[in-house]
Amino acid sequence: MAFMRLGSKSEAFHREGQTWLCTTGLVSDVTIEVGDMKFHLHKFPLLSRSGLLERLIEESSPDDGSVCVLSLDEIPGGGKTFELVTKFCYGVKIELTAFNVVSLRCAAEYLEMTDNYGEGNLVGMTETFLNEVFGNWTDSIKALQTCEEVIDYAEDLHIISRCVDSLAIKACADPSLFNWPVGGGKNATSGQNTEDESHLWNGISASGKMLQPTGEDWWFDDASFLSLPLFKRLISAIEGRGMKLENIAMAVMYYTRKHVPLMNRQVTMDEQVIETPTPSEAEQKAALEEIVGLLPSKKGVNPTKFLLRLLQTAMVLHASQSSRENLERRIGNQLDQAALVDLLIPNMGYSETLYDVECVLRMIEQFVSTTEQAGIVPSPSIIEEGHLVKDGSGLLTPTTLVATLVDGYLAEVAPDVNLKLAKFEAIAAAIPDYARPLDDGVYHAIDVYLKAHPWITDSEREHICRLMNCQKLSLEASTHAAQNERLPLRVIVQVLFFEQLRLRTSISGWFFVSENLDNPENPNGGNGGLLKPRGETVRERVSELEKECMHMKQDLQKLVRSKRSWKNFTRKLNFKKKSECCKPKDQATPAM
User: Fold this and answer.
1) Is 134 helix (H, G, I), strand (E, B) or coil?
2) I want to staple 153 with a disulfide (CB 3.0 to 4.6 A). Which of 41, 106, 275, 402 is the partner?
3) Whole-structure pTM over 0.85, yes or no?
4) Which residues, 6 or more positions from 24, have their beta carbon under 8 angstroms from its beta carbon?
5) pLDDT digit string, tens, across residues 323-378
């Protein structure tokens, strides 16, 4: 830590309560009041160093030679700083540190303690020391924190801007190259340690959990102790110097966890957080609204999980509508990166539904709108035996990912008896048809809704079933739907019809293959008898398909009402299990 001792005389002052006395033996001829403190001093040491005090003493000294009384209530730093100034004027040793140099520099400027009033005066001394402070990361952080106490004077003297610039330069550089002492996960002032845990996302979990800073995030913890206005200025300066937006997003996430601790309530048991003094909800609300505007605007830079948690916290704190809309828009733009469990946002409004489906619907609409405006055309879907196959890049398209996510979300919220049919349909219909190569997911959600709402009318059942395309059901889903007593008769007939068409197509294909294999003139049939068993196998398969087709016709005629459990079939469809926290307790018969 940088420090400097000024003066050489031994201590010649003592304090009695709020009174500060000089013990030189000379009678005091000037009393200076700073707040509740009174300093009984001598004119000459003061006016010989300060232009302001020289004028005030000259103007205020009574003609009868009585003690002159002055008031300096506006001096930067108050009585504590003026005590150091007085010692300096009397030549008593004082120690300059990163904690007091800013207030002393401002007080020296206020008192006009320039070299015009003695060589080596306090203005020059503190300015020289400040330049040393700016060369050190830890001291710069300490000095910047103390600027809060004298914010206006520090701003006028450009101390804040110079301090911020020095920190920005160091944050954007590799500290190991310059051997800068850094906080290493400790508060520059308190020395509080952070938890040392494995990194999940460059030092911060996707949920915003604070971990011990290392590598590129070595400066996060020290910066998190700054007030929000100073932190914003630091982030702006760092961004202006070209730091990666991902690192800036991480720094803001780290700061948010510390200053909006309400988010910590959503952290799981294995995600420990730092214990800090809890600000009031009003303070957290104000901080959150500022932080939302501080997050980088580029898509994908901020983890969607963190944005969703921030949105939930904004709802709890009743943050401004603009802040909530900002977060919904950011999440909607990258909804394909969201996880189902994070979309299950508890309802904070006046609606009776368990989850905030209105909010999710707005984010879905934002995603679809952004995708369509960008002119993103989905890759052709590939379906093999009822299963979705990834495209050539090995990845599903964002629209398909969101469609799967939405279908899963609908299945989670469908058991809510207060979920209106119109709202369920609005969410399902918000996804364009091309985004669903298969409609198994939306069929499963419809089935869950019909089971949880047995009182809806036949007309409403017909209407909700229009959300799915029977031609886009897999073989397993079609088989399940054909035996589903909750579906309207018209839908069952459609399912059986399209399944029969599919079987006919399959049969035609097998016959074509069979004829080619049994044809001795086939250029690929040179092995003769070796291909005959394969032809017999094909004919056997065709026979099986014909039997299956006949069984489906019988199902159509008899309209069998199957009452057996569908548990094994649902497992065959390989539907993902619901998260335990959202699974209805009364769900006895698994729906499709």
Assistant:
1) coil
2) 106
3) no
4) 12, 42
5) 999 999 999 999 999 999 999 999 987 778 999 999 999 999 999 999 888 776 55
pLDDT digits (tens, 9 = 90+) for 256-299: 999 999 987 754 433 444 455 688 999 999 999 999 999 999 99
CA 526 to chain centre: 66
Question: CA 385: distance to chain centroid?
Answer: 40
Grouping H, G, I as helix, E, B as strand and the rest as coil, residue 540 is helix
Residue that has been written with the tokens 């590598």 in this structure: 215
pLDDT at 136: 93
* Distance between CA atoms of residues 159 and 377, nearest Å: 53
Dist. CA 218–CA 477, nearest whole Å? 53
**Full set of structural domains in the chain with CATH:** 3-157 (3.30.710.10)
Distances (CA, A) of 579 to 273, 402, 583, 592: 24, 18, 6, 17
Q: What is the DSSP string of 9-45?
A: BPP-EEEETTEEEE-SSSPP-EEEEETTEEEEE-HHH
465 vs 446: CA distance, rounded Å? 7
SS3 percent helix, strand, coil of the chain, rounded to 5, is 55, 5, 40
* Kind plus residue range of the DSSP H or E element containing 70: strand 68-71
Helix segments in 472-572, DSSP class H: 475-482, 489-518, 532-558, 567-572
In angstroms, rounded to a whole number, what is the distance separating the alpha carbons of residues 201 and 216? 12
**Structural element, H or E, at residue 6:** strand 3-6
Tokens in use for 43? 């004119």
pLDDT at 580 over 60: no
- Quote the CA–CA distance of 30 and 40 in Å, as a whole number: 6
Mean pLDDT calculated for residue range 242-266? 91
| Structure token pair of residue 25 | 């033996």
- Strand, coil or helix: what is 326? helix
Q: Which two tokens stand for residue 258?
A: 């510390």
pLDDT of 584 reads: 41
Helix (H, G, I), strand (E, B) or coil at 584: coil
**Residue 545: Cβ-neighbour burial (10 angstroms; 0-12, 13-18, 19+):** middle
The three-state secondary structure class of 341 is helix
Residue at 189: amino acid letter: T
The strand pairing partners of 383, in sequence order, are: 388
Radius of gyration of the chain (CA): 37
Contact 326, 294 (CB under 8 A): no
Q: Which residues pair with 3 in a beta bridge?
A: 97
Q: At what angle do helices 321-333 and 357-373 cross, to 10 degrees?
A: 50
Q: How far apart are CA 278 and CA 284, in angstroms?
A: 9
Residue 537: half-sphere exposure toward Cβ, Cα within 13 Å: 6
Digit-coded pLDDT (tens) for 183-207: 544 445 444 433 333 333 333 444 4
Q: What is the dihedral of CA 121, 123, 128, 134, to 10 degrees?
A: 160
What is the distance between the alpha carbons of residues 534 and 526, in angstroms, rounded to a whole number? 14
Contact 133, 140 (CB under 8 A): yes
CB atoms within 10 A of CB 126: 27
Neighbours of 404 (CB within 10 A): 22
Secondary structure E strands in 202-272: none
pLDDT at 545: 58
